[in-house]
């Protein structure tokens, strides 16, 4: 099927969906919701097709007017100018449509589980992990997403050994999926009396939040241990065995949760993280297979890949994958990630267009 036939097919499907939804005997609620989502997803594509085809039709009409010997000089001049403007717009309209037609990541519309862990650098790494976690919390607030803190393992000096959050809203995973990897910080720690710059790191993982329909986990494949929750330094913070550790035996994935006083709530939270980790591991396997056939990737999501450096003395942030440096570190740490995320998304789209071109 060539491109024009594919566009005709999309237009026909959009009309078909409109007819089904406005029918005197519409489908049941569940079916209607599914049709509505498909219709909503197709609508911007249909609008882009109509705009492109309308522009091409207009170019044809203007060309005919310019070629017509009976067109007066003033009208011809106007037509030539309009023709030139429209001709220049066509490549942008075509590119926008091509991007819309790229195969979508099935997980893009999902919510996400965010995991931030202190890496090398001792206490300073823990403080940086806490800074990153707050950075994502502020970004989520700016996007009007819900940011639910699931677990905080504190260092006792204001830092985090590890922190988990569930982020829900529109397009969460699509915007955050390129954040996975090693984030490095260069700054003078507050404990450093000589003013020497230290380099520390934290690891970020962003996983699409899997639902039960996405991944089937059998009870027989789980080992569940309960224990007493502990706080920073190992002191007991709970007198009951409410903390939960779940091991998925086939994959060896282990998740612990102890923030809630209720064992039941801790288990529910741990299962959300476990399900998402297993789902992401399966996605990664598919991506790795795909990557064998194409070298270009914005980032593999590999947690060992150094992706970004935050340089405090120079007030700059550099994303190494797209060679982007922004000199607004304070704004970035306060959640202003739009420029970085948009650049990563555009780069990924450009690479995928090149792969199919």
Describe the overall structure.
The model is unreliable at 233-238 and 293-302 (pLDDT under 50). This protein has eight helices and eleven strands. A hairpin with a 4-residue loop joins strand 9 and strand 10 (316-319). The strands form two sheets. It has an eight-stranded mixed β-sheet. Helices cover 47% and strands 20% of the residues. It has 357 residues and is α+β, with helices and mostly antiparallel strands. Helix 1 (3-21) packs across helix 2 (29-67) and helix 2 packs antiparallel against helix 3 (73-101). The longest helix is centred in the N-terminal third of the chain and has 39 residues, at 29-67.
Topology:
Blueprint: H1 3-21, H2 29-67, H3 73-101, E1 112-118, H4 122-142, E2 146-154, E3 160-168, H5 172-176, E4 181-187, E5 198-208, E6 222-227, E7 243-248, E8 253-257, H6 263-293, E9 306-311, E10 316-319, E11 324-326, H7 329-333, H8 338-356
Parallel strand pairs: 4-9
Antiparallel strand pairs: 1-3, 1-5, 2-3, 4-5, 6-7, 7-8, 9-10, 10-11
**Helix coverage percent:** 40-55%
| CA-based gyration radius | 26 Å
CA-based shape: flat
Order of helices and strands: HHHEHEEHEEEEEHEEEHH
> Main β-sheet: number of strands, strand sense, barrel status?
8 strands, mixed
Count of individual beta strands:
11
- Strand arrangement within the widest β-sheet reads 2-3-1-5-4-9-10-11
Low-confidence stretches: 233-238, 293-302
Secondary structure tally, helices = 8
Distance between the termini: 16 Å
Proportion of β residues?
15-25%
Name the structural class. alpha+beta
Overall residue-averaged pLDDT value: 85
């Amino acid at each position: 099927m060539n491109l024009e036939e594919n566009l005709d097919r999309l237009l026909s499907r959009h009309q078909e969906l409109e007819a089904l939804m406005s029918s005197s005997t519409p489908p049941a609620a569940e079916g209607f919701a599914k049709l509505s989502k498909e219709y909503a997803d197709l609508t911007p594509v249909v609008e882009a097709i109509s705009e492109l085809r309308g522009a091409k039709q207009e170019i044809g009409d203007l060309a005919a007017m310019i070629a017509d010997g009976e067109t007066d000089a003033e009208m011809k001049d106007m037509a030539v100018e309009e023709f030139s403007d429209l001709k220049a717009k066509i490549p942008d309209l075509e590119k926008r449509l091509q991007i819309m037609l790229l195969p979508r990541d099935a997980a893009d519309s999902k919510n996400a589980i965010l995991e931030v862990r202190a890496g090398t650098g001792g206490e300073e790494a823990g403080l940086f992990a806490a800074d990153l976690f707050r950075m994502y919390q502020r970004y989520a607030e700016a996007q009007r997403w819900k940011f639910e803190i699931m677990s905080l393992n504190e260092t006792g000096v204001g830092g985090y050994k590890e922190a988990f959050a569930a982020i829900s809203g529109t397009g969460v995973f699509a915007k955050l999926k390129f954040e996975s990897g090693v984030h490095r910080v260069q700054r003078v720690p507050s404990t450093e009396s000589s003013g020497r710059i230290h380099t520390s790191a934290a690891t970020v993982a962003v996983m699409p939040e899997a639902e039960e329909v996405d991944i089937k986990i059998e009870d027989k494949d789980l080992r569940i241990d309960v224990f007493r929750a502990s706080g920073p330094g190992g002191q007991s913070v709970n007198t009951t065995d409410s903390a939960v550790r779940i091991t998925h035996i086939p994959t060896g994935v282990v998740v612990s949760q102890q923030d809630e006083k209720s064992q039941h709530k801790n288990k529910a939270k741990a299962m959300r993280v476990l399900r998402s980790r297993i789902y992401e591991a399966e996605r990664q396997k598919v991506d790795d297979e795909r990557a064998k056939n194409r070298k270009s990737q914005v980032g593999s999501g590999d947690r060992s890949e150094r992706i970004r450096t935050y340089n405090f003395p120079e007030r700059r942030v550099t994303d190494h994958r797209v060679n982007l440096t922004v000199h607004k570190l304070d704004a970035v740490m306060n959640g202003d990630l739009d420029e970085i995320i948009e650049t990563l998304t555009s780069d990924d789209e450009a690479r995928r267009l090149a792969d199919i071109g």
